[in-house]
Amino acid sequence: MLTKRIIACLDVRDGRVVKGIQFVDIIDAGDPAELAHRHAAAGADEIVLLDITATHEGRGTLLDTVKRTAAALFVPFTVGGGIRSAEDAAAVFNAGADKVSINSSAIARPELIGEIGASFGAQAVIVAIDARRSTSSKDPVGDAEVYVSGGRKPTGLRVIDWAREAEQRGAGEILLTSMNTDGMRNGFDCELTARVSAAVQIPVIASGGAGSAAHFAEVFSHNEGGGKADAALAASIFHFGVTDSRALKSELQRAGISVRLPC
Amino acid sequence: MIAIIDYKAGNLTSVVKALTYLNAPEITVTQDPDLVRKAAKIVLPGVGHFQATQLLADSGLTEAVRESVARGTWFLGVCVGLQWLFEGSTEAAATAGLGHFPGACEHFPASFEGTDLKSPHVGWNSLEEIREDSKLLRGISPGGFVYYTHSWRAPIVQATAAVTNYGGPFTAAVEQYNVMGVQFHPEKSAVVGLKVLQNFVEL
């Protein structure tokens, strides 16, 4: 049976793992390669490395970090952040990534999705979407809006419309972050995730708000109120020894969710 | 020498990396049919479109592989590399596979047993009905998880060595004497996947 995936996310700045709370506060959490291996050994199904380095000089550091992290990592490895062209993507793939995650650059130039897919396959392209619920609409979830630039800039795009377009342009997966729940550890945005998951055929990775095993069970659930997610991503929950994937998966299995065990 | 065939379809980095990690001797990434003919083992990786395998026929690699496997050279196809061992795929109807195994690869159905089936099939799924005589899957127990990412799947044939269930069973691994293939990505399948590659390296 196809299992639900637990994805450990490392936010990296200048070669170090950091994690923002609601995209703002930053706390140092360690070396990316070391943390990636620790997560994989503890049962994470995939590793995502998101580079939040703003400067051009940081790009060389990123490729070095990717190379070091990928060297002995034998689970799927995604790299995102600052990938603006098929050439940027190729450099990251050559350094050892299996997939790239693109966000603002796909909004700026949606053709990029197909361009990367043409060379490396659709399975290698994740379109990351940061969304915030509407404050003015009667349907705040359905009219949730896509934001770019680390959540600072509204785009005027409805998240469901953009997810569908990304799929049509050849995205392999959607990584959906709810800005309303991100960093709060109060649970994923199940309603938003379920709406996007129902709108597309490709897998949807839920992100933002993980705080307990119960939150993962909710976002994976296909029952009323569940998030219908295919995978879920968490960062801060894992980094400071809050829990590891193996403990999390044991709890999920008890809750009737199909997960990869032993891992 | 292990020849890893580069047919410009996706990313070979991770397959090479995994084989290097396992201390596989003399790994050569190549497009040269003569080098492929000399190899003791051939690996055909592949993530991407079935259409990309057209390059194998156009560049003489199909013939080189056909001759090599007839002589008993060990062959491992991964993902599209497994699919290519069959007659073809509805993904690119005009492109012929090697035809070593009968039948064509088909897209996952849109629904199965009354519920919608998402595709691609992405993630960790279990190996079932593992053939006990399989050299490639030696030491792997039914229920072992491996990583998949694909929308087309190969039919079940006599040479099927393991199945995975998603919208019904499909060929997860195929093995007939020296010719082997896996639909999953062993290079991305943690301990279970490394075991598969190690089995191949040790043949």
From TrEMBL, chain A:
GO terms for molecular function: imidazoleglycerol-phosphate synthase activity; lyase activity. Pathway: Amino-acid biosynthesis; L-histidine biosynthesis; L-histidine from 5-phospho-alpha-D-ribose 1-diphosphate: step 5/9. One of its GO terms (cellular component) is cytoplasm. Keywords: Amino-acid biosynthesis, Cytoplasm, Histidine biosynthesis, Lyase. It is found in: Cytoplasm. CDD domains: HisF. Its EC number is 4.3.2.10. It is an enzyme of class 4 (lyase). SUPFAM superfamilies: Ribulose-phoshate binding barrel. It comes from the Bacteria. InterPro entries: Aldolase_TIM (IPR013785), His_biosynth (IPR006062), HisF (IPR004651), IGPS_HisA/HisF (IPR050064), RibuloseP-bd_barrel (IPR011060). GO terms for biological process: L-histidine biosynthetic process. Belongs to the HisA/HisF family. PANTHER family: IMIDAZOLE GLYCEROL PHOSPHATE SYNTHASE HISHF, IMIDAZOLE GLYCEROL PHOSPHATE SYNTHASE SUBUNIT HISF/H IGP SYNTHASE SUBUNIT HISF/H. IGPS catalyzes the conversion of PRFAR and glutamine to IGP, AICAR and glutamate. The HisF subunit catalyzes the cyclization activity that produces IGP and AICAR from PRFAR using the ammonia provided by the HisH subunit. Heterodimer of HisH and HisF. This is Imidazole glycerol phosphate synthase subunit HisF. It comes from Granulicella aggregans.
From TrEMBL, chain B:
One of its GO terms (cellular component) is cytoplasm. Keywords: Amino-acid biosynthesis, Cytoplasm, Glutamine amidotransferase, Glycosyltransferase, Histidine biosynthesis, Hydrolase, Lyase, Transferase. GO terms for molecular function: glutaminase activity; imidazoleglycerol-phosphate synthase activity; lyase activity. Residues 4-200 form the Glutamine amidotransferase domain. GO terms for biological process: L-histidine biosynthetic process. The active site is at residues 79, 185, 187. Pfam families: GATase. IGPS catalyzes the conversion of PRFAR and glutamine to IGP, AICAR and glutamate. The HisH subunit catalyzes the hydrolysis of glutamine to glutamate and ammonia as part of the synthesis of IGP and AICAR. The resulting ammonia molecule is channeled to the active site of HisF. NCBIfam families: IMP_synth_hisH (TIGR01855). This is Imidazole glycerol phosphate synthase subunit HisH. The gene is hisH.
